[in-house]
Amino acid sequence: MTILIPSYEPDERLLGLIHQLKAVSDSTILVVDDGSGDAYSEIFDSAREAGCTVLTHRHNLGKGRALKTGFAYLQQKGATEGVVCADSDGQHLPKDIMRIAHAVNEHHDHVVLGSRHFTGKVPMRSRFGNSATRMVYSYATGTPIQDTQTGLRGYSVDMLDWLCRIPGERFEYEMNMLLEAKAAGYSLIEVPIDTVYLDENKSSHFRPLADSARVYFPFIKFCASSGFSAILDFVLLLLIQWVSANLFISVAGARLCSSIFNYTMNRSFVFAKGKEVAIGKSLPRYFALVIVIALLNYGLMHLLHERLGIPLIGSKLLTEASLFLFSYWSQRKFVY
Prior knowledge:
This protein is α/β, with parallel strands linked by helices. The chain folds into two domains: 2-206, Alpha-Beta Complex (Spore Coat Polysaccharide Biosynthesis Protein SpsA, Chain A), CATH 3.90.550.10; 219-335, no CATH class. It is 58% helix and 11% strand. It contains twelve helices and seven strands. It has helices spanning 12-24, 41-49, 63-76, 94-106, 124-141, 160-165, 172-181, 208-215, 217-244, 247-270, 279-307, 312-335, and strands spanning 2-7, 28-34, 53-57, 83-85, 110-115, 153-155, 187-192. It has a seven-stranded mixed sheet with strand order 3-2-1-4-6-5-7, sandwiched between helices. The longest helix is centred in the C-terminal third of the chain and has 29 residues, at 279-307.
């Protein structure tokens, strides 16, 4: 088993973790210095002296790139055992790292997550951040998990090629990994670990605004595509209704035009994984989903507008809000 530790501007806690791991395990320890600079060379030299392999980025490239550097190195060396990734700030206990290593050996073809339960004194940004990403992930995949932001994760050796191909260079890489695992044929398994925060998690290099935007980027892209499609659908609904005075024709005509636009955007921009998804596979599924959502759209609008007397604009807004998350989950799960 290899323990991979990506590290940027570490302190003595990295060396403490290394010595603790050496005391309880004979696992290989691979450290990636993500461009920390000369000021931190003494720490990484001490890691080498302790028996670790240290790879160095000349400049800071991000946690995702540091992980992929480690995975690529293991590939090149012909690794035959799995890998456990842990953070360098002392917030992953050696006993929990070993529990993840054991779970990797027991559960092949699974992404093993060290799952914190956020009990006790937890910094507000950590509690809020994980709650937000947990909700987004659950809606995006239909699979609830307890801890989407854990840095303690384990993988069997056959996953290395896939891990190197996942998009993302910084903190968004770990969210992309969760989003793509099922499509790649890998299940998720959570192993409970202790929740440890030192000094209110001040050692974390996570930037709340910039890195959160990267983490949520797949969802943000869908919001943008859906927003433009909704505007088009909204305008066409009003125009066709003004011409025909027939709600069914208005809903159907507006949805047909906006769905063609939305399919093109989602196929090429939102859900594409480095290349466009094959039309022959995604197009029938997409328009089957369009029919389902259109029927739900008509049914909800009929109920709200014609039965409850809510104005057309209000009915439209309520209907679209109700179907938005269902559409995102369905497209990621079934279409693309």
